[in-house]
Structure formats: structure tokens, C-alpha cells
Amino acid sequence: MAELRPGDSTTIRDLVWKAVDEVQITDIHTHIYPHTFDGLLLWGIDDLLTYHYLIAETMRYLEMGYEHFWALPKRAQAELVWRTLFIERSPVSEACRGVLTTLEKLGLDVSKRDLEAYRRFFAEQKVDEYVDKVFELSRVKTVVMTNDPFDDAELGYWSKSRQQDERFRAALRLDALLNSWHTAVPKLQEWGYNVGFDINSQTVSEVRRFLVEWLNQINAVYMAVSLPPSFAFPEGSTRGQLISECVLPTARETCKPFAMMIGVKKLTNPALRLAGDSVGKANIDVVEYLCANYPDVKFLVTMLSRENQHELCVVARKFRNLHVFGCWWFLNNPSLVDEITRMRLELLGLSMTPQHSDARVLDQLIYKWAHSRRIIADVLTDKYVDLAATGWLPTEQEIRRDVAALFGENFWRFVG
Ligand code: RAT
Ligand code: ZN
Question: Is residue 291 part of a domain?
């Protein structure tokens, strides 16, 4: 084991980088699937290029109507993104850089700027072997998916019994249930749940039955929902009632955490579709209220606005039933991940999960984790160097222990 001497920041950096580089990650929130989920797994260069983060950036430069863009086949959309963001100007944004990191780590020569060569490479891959390759390259051990029973494409999968891939764990996503009750009701009825539009005792008990049955069916590790900046609780809205009467009691009974992803303004620009969501500062009092009044419910929370990050850390200092995670979506940029991770370590020590990937395309695991590892390693190095200045020298084993906690073990301990 390496011996550290006071002020030996080079050695600390090497040890931290090695530990962070080698740790096997649990990615606690993604949108990817095993290849056995017919047609749902996105992968390869055309899916990388048509990521909604890149579509939003592309449309800023084009005069083409949004509908015209959406009417193009995926291949043509990808070509347009490639030409607009990579050829006609330099790909400096984080999402653009991500495509290049991914290609480079797959062994492709990005200096050639040869889209057709990249396409040929992906065309030669066998999907099951390629999934293994991506997990290996990104050193991800387990991913948690986003599983919404109200999504027809997924429903088909869960109703058939198929070969499980242990690397993919499920999370029961409740957006349709909590954010669009009018569309959820007919589906619940169709599936045999005796619910009505009014939240009466019959509906409550049927929704709870639905939650428990689905948690079991997919063996979910947690329930999750994305929420607007205006999210309030308690409140008499349908969502407020469903959370207090159905979700929280189910979370308590099943010991499954309730993940709240707060701060998304859906479809600020509807013409951009999936790329059309925006951000707003949410009210931290809601998180505080829930943690204080439901001490036997576990809350996983990430917030989308930068402005909420400090107060979220402070609330987490008060309530151990709150686990803060990830730099979500518009926050997953180097400057912000650095700032937020530093602040979290300073306020919460190691009791959080600094990052998730939110990968929608399998290959994104490669770049999202490569970029995050590097920033988290830098921030951690600074913290250990500060400790070393006092004479507290971390051992290699201690560093590895801390790193393992941040990249998955904290999450599993919290989930229980
Ligand atoms: O980051 C994203 O890809 C967003 O579109 C959302 O999916 C977000 O992460 C969510 O889970 O709602
Ligand atoms: Zn997501």
C-alpha cells in the first residue's frame, strides 16, 4: 500500500485517480434497457447524434421548421446534427464533446470526422456483445432503469417472462400516474384496477394495490417521479392526494424509497418535443416538509436548478431519510458538477451519491462516466490534500472505501 507523506499531493492525486478510475459503478438513474427489451435500447452513432440534448443545440442554428426536422428519418436527423454541430462549427458543448469521448474510447479516430466510418463500425457490432463492451469500457456494474408501466412499449416486455439481465435493475416511474391522472385512469381500469377520477377510498386502495403489484413484478429498487418547480405538498390536488394517500404509505410499507426529481418545466417549447423541457427553481420547503413529516419514508432527491443545490444540502444535513443524488440534466456539465460536488462534500461529507448518468443511449455510459469520474476525482483530490495539510494522511484503502461509497455503495445502503 502506498505511503503518503505530508504535502504529497501528487501521490494523493494518483491514488484517488486510480481508485476512481477502477471503481465499478452503480448508475442509479438511466433510461437504458437490456437488449432483450425489443426495440427500446438505443445505441450507436445515429442514436448518439439524435440525443435530445443535441437536437436542442442543433435547432438553435437552423431555420428549418421543427416539424420538418421531426419528419426526417433518424439517419437524416443525425446527419443534420453532425453537419450543424460538428462540421460547420467546433463541437465544444458538453453533449457534443460526449460523442467524441465515446467514439475515441471505442477506438475510433475522431480526427477523421468520418461519420460513415463510424456508422460502419456500429453496423458491425452484435448488440449483446456490444452491451458487454460498453459496460466494460465504462466500468459500470449495475444501472437502474426508468420503468413506466404506462409506456405501451415497455408494458409488452413486462407481461412476457424473459431472460433477466442482472446488470439492469428496475425503478417504477410514476410520472403518468402522478402528473397525468386523466390518462392514467382509463389504463388502470383496463388493467382491472377499480379506480375512478375522484380520489376516494376505493381508488386509493386500488392505486396502492397497483403500486405494490408493480414494485413486485419488476422488482423495483425505488419509485420515482419528475416534478415541476411549482410542486407543493401537502396540497389538495390530485397529485397531492395520490402522494399522501398512495405513494407515501406504499413507500413506508415496502421500504422502497420515493425518488423525487424536482424542477422540470415540461414542454416550455412543445415543438421541440423531448428537447423542449426547461428548468425552474423549486420550493425547498416541500422537501423539508416531507422529510420531517414522513421520517419512516426514504427520499432520494435531485433538483434541476442550480439555485436549489445549497438548500438541498442543508436539508439533507437535517434529515437522514433524505439521500441527495446526481447532477441532473442541465447540471451535468463540468463546471456545475465540480461546483455542486465540492459543495456537497463540504456540507455532507461522503453521505450522498454525487452523480448518475441519465444515459438514454447505451454508449453514453462511456462518456458520461468518463467525464464525471474525472471531475469527482479532482474534487476529492483537493479534499484529501486539504486533510493532508493537517497531517491526516488517507491510506489507499481509505480512499478506495470512500470512492466505492460515492459510486454506488451509499445508494445501496440507503435503499437497504
Ligand atoms: O435527462 C433527460 O434525458 C431528461 O429528458 C429526462 O429524462 C429526465 O432525466 C427524467 O428522468 O425525467
Ligand atoms: Zn432521467
Answer: yes
> Which residue range is the domain that position 207 belongs to?
145-324
Report yes or no on 20 lying in a domain. Answer: no
Residue 132 lies in a domain: no
List all residues whose CB is within 6 A of at least one atom of ligand 1: 31, 146, 226, 261, 274, 329, 358, 360
> Does 77 reside within a domain?
no
The CATH number of whichever domain residue 165 belongs to comes to 3.20.20.140
Strand intervals (E) in 37-164: 140-144
**How confident is the model over 361-388, as pLDDT tens digits?**
999 999 999 999 999 999 999 999 999 9
Band of pLDDT at residue 3, cut at 50, 70 and 90: low
**What is the tally of structural domains in the chain?**
1
List of long-range contacts for 114-117, beta carbons under 8 Å, 24+ apart: 115/45, 115/78, 115/79, 115/82
DSSP assignment, residue 166? T
CA–CA dist 148, 180 (Å, integer): 13
The span from the CA of 253 to the CA of 184, in Å, is: 23
Cα 31 to ligand 2 centroid, rounded to whole Å: 6
pTM above the 0.85 mark?
Answer: yes
pLDDT at residue 154 is higher than 90: no
- Which atom belonging to ligand 1 lies closest to the Cα atom of 175? 12
CA of residue 276 to ligand 2 center, whole Å: 14
* pLDDT reading at 288 higher than 90: yes
| Cα–Cα distance, 147 to 177 (Å, whole number) | 12
Q: Which ligand is nearest to the CA of 30?
A: 2
